[in-house]
Specification:
About 45% of the residues lie in helices and about 15% in strands. The protein is of the alpha+beta class. The protein has one domain. The longest helix is centred in the middle third of the chain and has 10 residues.
Length: about 70
């Protein structure tokens, strides 16, 4: 979602931020998130913000590792 969409949604819905490591996110991860996420999310160079409590729970279970999380949602 865009920065504007994020600023509008974050005040209306619960959000769950996750810090992105220095390695960043590669294109394949973005493609997997786009294909398989049911709820909107916001991503920039420093963070991933989810609006689904279930997705956030799974992300935490995978140790906040975006690679492991995206491999689980295939």
């Amino acid at each position: 979602m865009t920065k504007l969409g994020f600023s509008l949604l974050k005040s209306k819905y619960d959000s769950y931020p996750f810090v992105i490591g220095e390695e960043g996110i590669h294109k394949n991860l973005l493609i997997q998130l786009h294909k398989h996420m049911s709820w909107p999310y916001y991503i920039d160079k420093k963070k991933l913000v989810m609006f689904s409590g279930d997705d956030a729970m799974w992300m935490k279970m995978y140790g906040n590792d975006i690679d492991k999380f995206t491999n689980s949602i295939k």
